[in-house]
Specification:
CATH class: Alpha Beta
Bound molecules: adenosine-5'-diphosphate, magnesium ion
Shape: globular
Strand order of the largest sheet: 2-3-1-4-6-7
Number of strands: 8
Radius of gyration: 16 Å
Number of domains: 1
Largest sheet: 6 strands, mixed
CATH topology: Rossmann fold
CATH architecture: 3-Layer(aba) Sandwich
Length: about 180
């Protein structure tokens, strides 16, 4: 897993992806032992999120924001606060087809399952991450088809093999 662990430099990891794109599973597999997890589904309120974030910042503890983080506006304050206090900032973008994410969401039980419109709405608000936002590292993640994840270096522009621009709409909308 390509997380760079620089000794004595804590990291903020920001996961970016529509619901059911695999963020929390990735966290469990790769960040469980090293990063405190900040997750809205678990904490329920922004107040608790802020308390935990402040504790991580003050204690120089690496942490991961395991929310959808689909817009720049949502990511910006996390990045700003972490950079100001000397954290490295690492982003993982979770590629997903909307129809596949919706299907995975439908398979979930109880409160973990959200309405289809919730998944679609998040997809429509998605702004792809960019180094200009202040990331020190950006990675592109996709499910590998056998229960794991494939992680590649982020790229953008014409030389990039990923289809970086989502098509406009529809159930087959592809996010890279
Ligand atoms: N690598 C994977 N390959 C196949 N299915 C996966 C993988 N990771 C997660 N899933 C399934 O996709 C669903 C959503 O995963 P989850 O990690 O909860 O996504 P998110 O946190 O982005 O909402 C879960 O039901 C999970 O079992
Ligand atoms: Mg999750």
């Amino acid at each position: 897993m390509p997380v760079t662990h620089t000794p004595n430099v804590p990291t903020l990891v920001i996961l970016i992806g529509i619901p059911a794109s695999g963020k929390s599973s990735f966290c469990r597999s790769y960040l469980y032992d090293s990063h405190v997890r900040i997750n809205r589904d678990q904490l329920k309120t922004k107040y608790r999120e802020h308390l935990l974030l402040d504790a991580c910042i003050c204690g120089r503890q690496s942490f991961v924001v395991d929310n959808t983080n689909v817009s720049r506006a949502v990511r910006a304050p996390f990045i700003a606060q972490a950079r100001k206090t000397g954290f490295r900032v690492i982003g993982y973008y979770f590629s997903s087809m909307l129809n596949e994410a919706m299907e995975r969401n439908r398979q979930r039980e109880g409160a973990a399952r959200i309405p289809d419109q919730g998944v679609a709405g998040m997809a429509s608000r998605l702004e792809l991450p960019d180094y200009g936002e202040g990331f020190d590292e950006l990675w592109y993640v996709r499910m590998d088809g056998s229960g794991g994840f494939q992680v590649e270096e982020w790229c953008s522009g014409e030389s990039c093999s990923h289809a970086l621009v989502p098509s406009q709409s529809g159930p087959d909308m592809v996010y890279m």
